[in-house]
Amino acid sequence: MIYHILINMEQKYIKLSTYAKINCITYRTAYEHWSLGKLNGKKTHTGSILIENEVSSSEEQLVATYARVSSSENKSNLESQSERLRNYSNAKGYKIHKEVKEIGSGLNDERKKLYNLLDDDKIKIIVVEHKDRFSRFGLNYINLLLEKQGRKLEIINEVNDSKEDLMQDFVSIITSFCARLYGKRRTKRKTEKIIGELNK
């Protein structure tokens, strides 16, 4: 659910509860981020936690949204995913510079559109719906490199991605290994056999 919250753009700090709603996370998760030092802010003498207003601080920063699905069969999902990213960004007061939509496996590290997005250092914030939409593996390394560049990856929902998308990536792994073991001619038959056994 996207929360549309009206806040003062010039306001330097917002309550932790407001921050949680804007970022579509629970208060408990926001508090954990605060405890781990992931959020900039302060604690008042009454015990209230105030977080720096990212809306005002990132107003001039270029923002891009990145949506991905594993196959062309999910093209309608790609559009709805991109729309959710747009709504989220608008709710946070971000000015979207690019809306990137890509079809490809989350295991593929040669996605051209993602590569171009990462290569564009003018983009300071990349917004994705789930971490798996961005990458299945190596996300911590990517985050570290982006932080070194003064950039960040903003994930709307920390919950695991859809089972269907994960299954398609799993099939890609099986297909790749079958091609190495049995050659291209027998790959399809072997893959279908393995998937059939797993579904029993």
Produce the secondary structure layout.
Blueprint: E1 13-15, H1 16-22, H2 27-35, E2 41-43, E3 49-52, H3 54-57, E4 62-69, H4 75-91, E5 96-103, H5 112-119, E6 123-128, H6 131-134, H7 139-148, E7 152-155, H8 163-182, H9 184-198
Parallel strand pairs: 4-5, 4-6, 6-7
Antiparallel strand pairs: 1-3, 2-3
Task: Report what the structure shows.
The chain has 200 residues and is of the alpha/beta class. It folds into three domains: 13-56; 58-155, Resolvase, N-terminal catalytic domain (Rossmann fold, 3-Layer(aba) Sandwich); 163-198. Helices cover 47% and strands 18% of the residues. The chain contains nine helices and seven strands, in the order βααββαβαβαβααβαα. The chain has helices at residues 16-22, 27-35, 54-57, 75-91, 112-119, 131-134, 139-148, 163-182, 184-198; strands at 13-15, 41-43, 49-52, 62-69, 96-103, 123-128, 152-155. The protein has a four-stranded parallel sheet with strand order 5-4-6-7, with helices on both faces. α1 (16-22) packs across α2 and α8 (163-182) packs across α9. It is elongated, with a radius of gyration of 20 Å. The chain starts with 12 loop residues before the first strand and ends with a helix.
Describe this protein with a few key phrases.
alpha/beta, four-stranded parallel sheet, 3 domains, Rossmann fold, 18% strand, elongated
CATH class of the largest domain: Alpha Beta
Mean pLDDT: 77
Domains counted in the coordinates: how many? 3
Low-pLDDT stretches are 1-10
Stated plainly, the CATH topology of the largest domain is called: Rossmann fold
Radius of gyration: 20 Å
Percent of residues in helices comes to: 40-55%
Order of helices and strands: EHHEEHEHEHEHHEHH
Strand arrangement across the biggest beta sheet: 5-4-6-7
> Which secondary-structure class do the elements indicate?
alpha/beta
What is the β-strand count? 7
Q: Helix segment count?
A: 9
Q: What percent strand?
A: 15-25%
Q: Can you summarize the main beta sheet? A: 4 strands, parallel
Question: Please, what is the CATH homologous superfamily of the largest domain?
Answer: Resolvase, N-terminal catalytic domain
CATH second-level architecture of the largest domain: 3-Layer(aba) Sandwich
- The outline comes out as elongated
